[in-house]
Structure formats: C-alpha cells, structure tokens
Design goal:
8-stranded mixed β-sheet; binds zinc ion; 2 domains; Urease, subunit C, domain 1; TIM Barrel; alpha/beta; 488 residues
Length: 488
C-alpha cells in the first residue's frame, strides 16, 4: 500500500493516525482516523474520512497484540536445545543454567532485547511471568527489587507495555500426601521468598518502588502470579489471595502435563483446577496458563468463572505438552488469550495460527476459531488478561496499533479479515503504542539510539557468554519428582 506515505511525523509525537483499513471487531473498515489524548488513549474515531496534513498515515492496521505469557530469559535457549532431542528435563537443566547466569544488569539487557523483538513483531504489551528474584543462593540483591526494576525499566525504555507478573515460587513440589511440600532445589533458591508472607511483603514493597520510579511512563503495571499448584502450597495460596488487592491481575500455570494432575490429586484429592476453585480463585481476574490437560468438570468450572485461559501454542508444541481444549473452554465461557511463553518463537500471528491449527488437528474440522475470534484472542483477550482494560479501537481504549503488510509474498490477495491465518511477524511494518510510533520495519524508535532487537541481543549474548555461571550451583541432575516440575 503506497498510499500510506512516510514517517514525516516525529515518532515520539502523539499525532493523529489515519489507516487505509482498520480491522475493528474482526471486520475491515476503510479510511479510519484516530486521535489520542495526553495519556495515549483514543479520543476520537472517524470512519470513511480522508487523512489530514499532519496525520501519521498507515495501511492496514489491527489492534496491538497482547502477549499474555512470557519468560524473557528463556530466549537465551532458542536454537540451542534441539540437538539431542530429549525431554523437558534436559531443557530444564539448560533453563536453570540460563537463570543462574543472570544478575540485574544482564537480566535488563536480555529483557530489552526480547521486549524489542516482541515490539517489532507486533506484540504491544507483554505479561512477564517473573520469578528470578534474588541472587543464586536466595539472598536478596543489595538494591531492593533490583531484578524487577531492571525488567520494568527495559520495557519502559523499549516502549512496550509491561504487566510485571511478580511470581510466588515457594516449593519445588507438592511433597507426599499428608506431608510438607518439597523445599526448593539449590538451583531454584533465587526464585523463593521463604513463605507467602515473605512474598507478599516483597510484592507490596515492589508496588511502591515501581510507582516511585516509573510513574511517568504509564507503560508498566504490576500484576501477580502463583507459579503453579505444585510450587505454592495450598495454605500459602490462600494467604496470598487474601493479601493481594482484588483488582490486580493474577496468573498461574495450570495443567501442562497429565502427571501434574495425578500428583495434585494424590496430594489434595483435587485437580489443579479443583484446588483453585476450592480456594475461590477462579474468577474473571485470573488467567490460567497451559490449560492443557483438563477434566470435563475442570472445563465447566473454568468456563463458568469467566477466567481467561492463556494458550501458548508454539511453546506447547516445542515442549510436546499436548493440545488444550481451547474451543470447549471458549464455548463454556472462558476468555482466550495467547502467549509466547519460552520465546523460542516470538510471533503473535504464529501463536494465533497455532491455536487454530491445534484445534483442527485434534478435531478434524476447520474454522474452530473464526479469524475474528483469533484476532480477539491476540488483542483484546491479551490486554484483558494483563489488566489493561478494553482494547477494541474504541474511544477510551489505548491507541495501540500494528500495521500489517497486505502486499507481501504471504499476504498478497488475502482477505484483510483473514490476515491472522496468513501473515507472520515478518509482515509487521509499523507499531504504535499509546499514539507514539515505537517500531518501524524491524527498528526500535523509542530507544535513545535507534536500534534493532538483533543488535540488543548480540550485546546481551556477548556479555553473558562465559561471564557468569562458574560460581553458581550446578543444576540438579535428576528431578526427584519430575512430574511436578513441568512448568518452566
Ligand atoms: Zn510459563
């Protein structure tokens, strides 16, 4: 679309945006003009109008996409874990080694690179499921909240919205029926806070620290996460649910592996979904990540609660997890979102296509999710999961847009309403967050020096290589209870 013109409007100016076509509620609308208020929210929407002189002119746009589940540092493992096949446990050892290599400076550099990649690929918001809180031996860093602030500052610098899902991770496993939970392993000590009260105290302190340091950007939101039913004992979950404000988005890894359900049943007499239901945790503010292996009763309970289910199709395929019943969950009332999880793939469009592909492979039917439903999962579903409110390109919504080429090898001739099933991140041209242009053709514009995610990643990898790890504890070679160790 040559109609779109150049970028004469400075990237950091919240200029009106005119789109030749905007996909709104899954339908292409022609010649749409948006203006933003001082907070970067949509102030006006006009349809069927011509652009004005100082408008930023775009081609075909979709709402910015919300990545509801990420572990940024897992990106370090991309393309390095496939040689010997193996299983989750080999992957996990590599992941723990990567975690052990991080300190606040390195973590910030990695997060900058990964968030930058997300932004140029069309993710305009990310939920970072963050659990590498402390030094490798579990002691806090000298600067309070150093790791969390490093992640938050990385997002603010790159220009992506971040919901920092600070994660409670208190045990390595459920432990025997009637007995205590299994303590953290040596390589997990950096994740822990002792007990639920310790985690809550740190979370409230972090909220104060974030509001003091980042209150000008408007990009960072603090959320919370329970790592999983196996990593947070039931009574600790109860304490945390009581101590968290009700409006904070809450995420949890649910049921990624069948054995995990069996272990939870053996310990509690309930499935992981049943445990959360008994705690009163299933409600519209919770997001359930990897709703993969569910009973019929689980599906009914989740659907009735109005919870969000976060599917991570590229990761679930990579790790051989299985295919979750997304369509059935949606039919019973659950909201659907998607996430990049281990970031072996960073491509919102491939996550959406993977969601539908899994359904087709499992059911033998096409069109399990309509193109409009897929796009909703990738946009409004993700933002809702991350506590970012409505995201439908209506007045009051964030002016977050992704321009997708309709003239590439992949997309030429496609119905714009079906872009989610043909385009990839390679077709993302320009990205707008809060009315500002933050990425263009793979380059990051909000950073002090215009750069690319590849450059940021090269620096991060170079600095990490061989610089750390020798003095860190070696990963435990054999999981003492591997079935409980499923979620990364
Ligand atoms: Zn995860």
């Amino acid at each position: 679309m040559s109609i779109t013109g150049g970028t004469a409007v400075p990237s950091d100016v919240r200029a009106p945006v005119w789109a030749a076509t905007a996909i709104v509620d899954g339908r292409p609308i022609d010649r749409v003009r948006f203006t933003a208020d001082d907070a970067g929210r949509i102030a006006t929407v006009e349809r069927g109008v011509d652009p004005q002189a100082d408008d930023r002119r775009l081609g075909t746009v979709v709402p910015g996409m919300g990545n509801a589940h990420s572990h940024a540092f897992h990106r370090l493992l991309r393309g390095r874990t496939h040689a010997d096949g193996g299983d989750f446990w080999q992957w996990r050892e590599a992941m723990y080694a990567a975690a052990a290599s991080l300190d606040p400076e390195h973590y910030g550099r990695v997060a900058r690179a990964v968030f930058g990649e997300m932004l140029v690929c069309g993710w305009t918001a990310v939920g970072e499921f963050h659990y590498v809180h402390h030094q490798a031996d579990g002691t806090p860093y000298p600067t309070a909240h150093a790791m969390e602030l490093a992640v938050a500052e990385a997002a603010a610098e790159i220009g992506i919205r971040l919901t920092l899902l600070d994660t409670a991770y208190l045990a390595s496993g459920l432990g025997p029926a009637g007995g205590p939970a299994t303590p953290l392993l040596a390589e997990q000590l950096a994740f822990g806070d002792g007990d639920a009260t310790g985690w809550l105290d740190r979370w409230h302190g972090l909220r104060a620290a974030l509001s003091a340091s980042l209150d000008t950007t408007g990009l960072v939101t603090l959320g919370a996460a329970l790592h999983s039913v196996r990593a947070v004992p039931v009574e600790a979950m109860r304490t945390i649910l009581t101590g968290l404000p009700e409006d904070v988005p809450l995420h949890v890894h649910l049921s990624e592996q069948p054995q995990e359900n069996l272990d939870t049943l053996a310990k509690t007499g309930r499935t992981p979904t049943g445990v959360l239901a008994a705690l009163g945790a299933l409600d519209p503010r919770i997001s359930l990540v990897h709703a993969t292996h569910l009973t019929d009763a689980d599906i009914t309970a989740i659907g009735r609660s109005g919870a969000t289910v976060v599917m991570c199709p590229t990761t679930e395929a990579d790790l051989g997890d299985g295919i979750g019943p997304a369509r059935r969950l949606a039919d019973t009332g659950a909201r659907i979102a998607v996430g990049s999880d281990q970031n072996a793939v960073v491509d919102p469009l491939l996550e959406l296509r993977g969601l539908e592909a899994g359904e087709r492979l499992a059911s033998g039917r096409r069109g399990r999710f309509s193109p409009a439903e897929l796009l909703e999962a990738g946009t409004a579903g993700g933002y809702r999961s991350l506590g970012l409110g409505r995201h439908t390109l209506a007045v009051g919504d964030p002016l977050d847009l992704v321009e997708v080429s309709t003239s590439s090898l992949r997309t030429t001739g496609a119905d714009p309403a079906q872009l989610a099933l043909v385009a990839t991140a390679s077709d993302v041209e320009r990205v707008i967050v809060g009315g500002r242009l933050v990425a263009e053709h793979g380059r990051l514009l909000a950073t002090p020096q215009e750069t690319t995610p590849e450059q940021l990643l090269a620096v991060a990898l170079t600095e990490l290589a061989g610089s750390r790890g020798a003095d860190r504890p070696a990963p435990t070679q054999t999981a003492d209870h591997p079935a409980q160790e499923t979620q990364p």
